[in-house]
Amino acid sequence: MFEIALPADAPFTVAELTAADVDALGSFLDARLRELIIRHEPGSGEARAAYALKVAADAQLDELRLPFRYDDGAPERLKEKATAWNSVIHTVWQWQGTDGYDEDRWRLVGYPAPEKKAEADAPSDPAAFVLGSEGYAEWKKRAGREGDVLREEFLNRPIRRPEEADEAPLSWRSDKVVVYGSVLAHSGLPRTPENENLWRGTAADALSVLAAGESIRRTILAGRAKHIHQGLMLGTTWSEIAEALGRTPDQVRAELRYWADENPDLYYGADRRVPVAALLDLGDDETVSVQEEDR
């Protein structure tokens, strides 16, 4: 049993990272994982686990390389770089203290807040003050790390029923379907010396994909009626919404009517100036009369 301290925060921001840092980190991690794979007997549990870790690490490295390769200078690109970099650092820190590990550069990074122009006459904004404070930045950084841990726990946890996935963010559920769906595709491949270590899906993986997929479907359908209502209130027509959904206007009306009847609190807090009944009576190409200032 051994203990390794969590990676320290870097004394620099993600803006100071370069493509060379990414290449060095990727080369180190790739070499270590290849060592693990060849060290064990092909087909053994250890070899399979090492190969699975390499597949996951390769996906992390691909996500890391993209924002560096296609950096258009947009502020959101810095956030993408920091998120992807820190994800890889959480994987590679297990080799801290070994030969070749760069203790100075391979640390968790933050990203600089966008510069704000001072406006002497601008009214005070308490929300902006809080969101721009150091305390909030530290809380957000800590919440991000905890969120990464929870996401990994969810992806590794078997799911047997849709309800077991309902509390997870949609992006996590989608990741689970994509990752394990890809693994299940390997199950039908014939075993050869070349793919002996291929990560193959199990019955438990198939159940997780089905349950997580059903959870996603239910969430999307539950929110769709609200979006239909919002679209109509903002000036779209039944025909336009039907085209967006690949359905007929009458089918869309039936969906809104069903959810309005079954979920009386569905539109709680939403714009109620036009009753649902009046929306249902609109012609296929009619729109709600919306004042310009309400748009």
What does this structure look like?
- The protein has 295 residues and is an all-alpha fold.
- The chain has helices spanning 19-39, 45-69, 75-92, 126-131, 134-156, 170-185, 203-233, 238-245, 249-262, 276-280.
- It is built from ten helices and no strands.
- The protein is globular.
- The termini are far apart.
- Among the domains are: 8-112, no CATH class; 220-294, no CATH class.
- 57% of the residues lie in helices and 0% in strands.
- Helix 1 runs antiparallel to helix 2 (45-69), helix 6 crosses helix 7 and helix 7 (203-233) crosses helix 9 (249-262).
Q: First CA to last CA: what distance?
A: 62 Å
Q: How many beta-strand elements?
A: 0
**What percentage of the residues does DSSP assign to strands (E)?**
under 5%
Content-based structural category = mainly alpha
Integer-rounded radius of gyration: 25 Å
Elements, N to C (H/E)? HHHHHHHHHH
- Measured as a percent range, the helix fraction is 55-70%
Shape from CA axes? globular
Average pLDDT level? 79
Low-confidence stretches: 117-123, 291-295
| Total of helices | 10
Q: Summarize the biggest pleated sheet.
A: none
Summarize the structure.
The protein is mostly helical.
How are the SSEs ordered, and which strands pair?
Elements lengths: L18 H21 L5 H25 L5 H18 L33 H6 L2 H23 L13 H16 L17 H31 L4 H8 L3 H14 L13 H5 L15
Helix pairs in contact: 1-2, 2-3, 6-7, 7-9, 8-9
Q: Which tags fit this structure?
A:
0% strand; disordered C terminus; 57% helix; 295 residues; globular; mainly alpha; 10 helices
